[in-house]
Amino acid sequence: MWRNGSHRYGLVSISFHWAIALAFVALVGLGAWMVGLSYYDPWYNDSLALHKAIGIVALALAVSKFGWRFADPRPGLAPDLKPHERAGATVMHGCLNALIVLVPVTGYVISTSEGAGIDMFGLFELPAVRGMTEALRDLAIELHYYLAYAGIALVAVHAGAALKHHFIDKGSTLKRMLNPRAPSGRRG
Length: 188
Ligand code: HEM
Ligand code: HEM
Fold this sequence. Notes:
Layout: H1 11-34, H2 44-71, H3 83-112, E1 118-120, E2 124-126, H4 134-167, H5 173-178
Helix pairs in contact: 1-2, 2-3, 3-4
The chain binds protoporphyrin IX containing FE (2 copies).
């Protein structure tokens, strides 16, 4: 139930997936909205503070997810996928897994490169990175921007593929990511 089987996702992996998915989509929305606010908007400062703190939570979830894999290896892809779908899913999952680390890390570099730490919901402060050059900060700004928006395009393809496989091909992938007791889709 909690742990993955050879062809099933357990509750821990399912919870990581949906928590990270929700955080990623919400952070792109929040990020796109906040950069359009004027200096006089009441949300000008708070929206960025919230974006940073939730972004760090997303990073912590991603790192924990990778850590959890050592204790609980991932199941294989659903056996009812065709070879080209398996290849596509493997590449897509690799890209998404890279993005859920790279986007918040570049955000952290942008935010702390001038020496200020990150206020985590008023509970504690994360220290700033030291020794950051102007060039590295500019690179982080570019990467944060392009990777976040490329990420949301990839998520649209990823979610579209999951929905197509569920509703049109009547496959098992989405059920596996929603219910740890779902049939595995294994033939025979
Ligand atoms: C918003 C709607 C989304 C839907 C409907 C969805 C659906 C799914 C499904 C069905 C799988 C299981 C594929 C399999 O059988 O192996 C999966 C896996 C995966 N998804 Fe999503 N997903 C969504 C959003 C996201 C987002 C926003 C991210 C990250 C930015 C993400 C990252 C991943 C990764 C990395 C995997 C591979 C398994 C893992 O490493 O945890 N997904 N997704
Ligand atoms: C998965 C996590 C994250 C996502 C998806 C994300 C997404 C975004 C997006 C879409 C923007 C707007 C870019 C634009 O249109 O110019 C943005 C801006 C920004 N984000 Fe994030 N972000 C994440 C995490 C973080 C973290 C952890 C921090 C800092 C600790 C951070 C700091 C910033 C800053 C400072 C900006 C403004 C950059 C500028 O004004 O050019 N982000 N983010």
